Amino acid sequence: MPSRLNNLLPPLMHPVAEVGAEGEEAFRDYAAALTRQMGLLTSALITLCILVWWPLDWALMPDAQHIDAFFQLRASAATLMAVAFVALWTTRLRYAPTLIMATGFYAGFLGCIGLALGRLGVMGWLGDAYLGIVPMALIPMRLRWRIAATSLVGLTLVGGFFGPFPAHLGKLDALGQLSFMVFAVLFTIAVGENSSSPSSSRARRSRTSPPSWTSTPAPSATTSPRSAPSSARAPWPTSSATPTPRA
Fold first, then answer.
1. pLDDT tens across 182-201, in order?
2. What distances in angstroms separate CA 115 from CA 33, 126, 244, one per listed residue?
3. Residue 132: Cβ within 10 Å count
4. Residues 25-38: tens digit of each pLDDT
5. Which residue in 53, 78, 49, 82 sits closest to 67, CA to CA?
6. Among 87, 80, 182, 99, CA closest to 139
7. Contacts of 139 (CB under 8 A, 6+ apart)
């Protein structure tokens, strides 16, 4: 019975055995490379979308106040994302500095959104902006890093909205929006940990025990490479495939 109940639990609730420093280093190297790649792609896409949608403000925004607020949002966000792209492109750091850099730039981006929406005082748009917290679930992190990084992103968004405009806290739906931010942060932490914990476990095991694919014989001349057993493929990038970051 206990084993059956255990099988019903999601991976987030299964304990992950510690397997040593080498396995942890494998995860950190992979996480740093993946975070850098995702940061480059995200900053490029955000900058492109800002520039493409910018001319529509004069046609879609209801008044000059909205146009001015979104002008400042797009100008500051595009500048920040361009700097983020250059910084990530020209550096190849280890796990902690890469994670801090990527999280800082993304938190700044959501801070720009919160500031622009705060100028307008549109509480409903703040609730829509909470969707921007969820992409943090895609970054591979250990739980303590995930809690800190996701909380920072959420607090920066609401801080940009309420900080310079404390009068918004007196609105009827202000506390409801703040509680929804807490939910969005907790939801993102849970989804991210549930999806990355099995991966981090495989990363650590791949460096601390002989991989199963190394003992599989190579396909014969009469065997198609497509028919090779699935165990012949590494479940995680090997150390030779991961760029060596500079200190």
1. 999 999 999 998 876 544 44
2. 31, 10, 38
3. 17
4. 888 888 888 999 99
5. 53
6. 99
7. 31, 34, 35, 38, 99, 102, 103, 146, 149, 192
